Fold this protein.
Amino acid sequence: MSSAPTTVKIAILGPGTVGTEVVRLLERQRDDLEARVGAPIVIAGIYVRDTAVPRDPAIPRGLLTDDADALIASADVVVELMGGIEPARTMILAALERGCAVVTANKALLAAHGPELYEAADAAHADLYFEAAVAGAIPLVRPVRESLAGDHVRRILGIVNGTTNYVLDEMTTRGLGYDVALKRAQELGFAEADPTADVEGYDAAAKAAILASLAFHQRVSLDDVYREGISAITPADVAAASEVGLVIKLLAIAERTEVGVNVRVHPTLVSATHPLAGVHGAFNAVFVEAEAAGELMFYGQGAGGLPTASAVLGDIVSVARHKALGGKGPRESNYADLPVLSIASASTRFQIRMLVVDRPGVLASVAAILAAHGISIESVRQHHTSDRAHAEVVISTHRAPERDLERTVADLAASAVVHEVLSVLRIEGE
Ligand code: NDP
Ligand code: HSE
């Protein structure tokens, strides 16, 4: 005769934007969650640095503790929602070593120390779940890790950072300045505590590393990801893009080629008719191209306390069910050993915006520099500027290797006819 499943005890570390919503939903939906888990669930405690700080009313004061070790020792499931590397890393390792299941939304930690965490989980035969770490509420980790485990993923192309999509979208659709749009994203709770992680592309790069690791069955860390943020994007870049039916998006791109994998994050021009151009506000969208499945698209809220809590709750139900009834989630799959390629090996179309000296023969000189590097021009536009001595020239190229482009831009910048290279943006998705 089997005994009734025992209560699953859940420890929450960090009742912030996401943690508060997780606690609220755990309490509000307890009956449904218990039915789905197949056992009673209880919040064993909520770890904070300072128990005296005023908190959201959803956080029961009696559950607060500043003793993380004791809380972890009493738990079956540890839910880490503090963010950052330490003390999150040490606490997750302590939890895994004790055999606790761990749920985390911490992409920065996973991208930097994923292998160490996976190995600790494996050694303890414990679950490590992280659906909320990539694209907030969107079920993406599980489809890539489990549903596509029988297929070959070729390419992932997506908007995985809500803050930067919000900022670029506000600049594009409402003509807002960068600083105003960013401040609003912070007020709405999309941005990380330090928005540098968002606007300089670190957050998207961490997510790209996690997705590439899962999709290509090999270890890809944050250091393997080429990264450019959006802080250098100007209203003039946005205007030059819309003039020819393009919009600027911060894309995470992970590609498997004949010779290795290429993972990068950078501002990208996409056609205004491309589905990614229609992703507004803080929404995220991710295309996955797999050999047998073909093209898949995932879309939804990629940030915010409540949407992210949905993904965390899904993981809590899965790991709590394993605790109550047995079973175990997937382990790390890292058998592939493809080289991680540098950005120089990528090949895309480019748009180069520059200020040139306004006199006869200048365009011919510019074209000669591109031709010398084997780069084929697709279109050229020229605008007058308020300064009569210079003109703005915008050149779009056909597809060209990144390493050729780098040399071309260096030669353009050094040329006597080019006053300044204003921006270089990649064009994708055509
Ligand atoms: P917040 O900054 O809102 O909350 C973090 C919480 O952790 C706060 O309660 C904070 O306590 C606590 N905390 C931070 N550092 C420590 C520490 N050293 N010791 C103890 N407690 C600490 O973060 P979010 O809720 O926004 O994010 C949590 C995690 O979820 C991060 O990994 C983030 O990347 C991820 N995430 C966030 C999303 C979002 O939209 N916000 C979306 C997807 C993932 P205190 O109040 O005392 O400062
Ligand atoms: N700061 C992140 C974003 C939160 O803007 O997308 C989700 O990871």
Q: What stands out?
A: DSSP finds 14 helices and 17 strands in the chain. The chain has a mean pLDDT of 95. The first strand starts at residue 8 and ends at 13. Residues 14-19, 48-50, 53, 81-84, 87, 105-107, 132, 136, 189-190, 192-193, 303-304, 308 surround NDP (ligand 1) (CB under 6 Å).
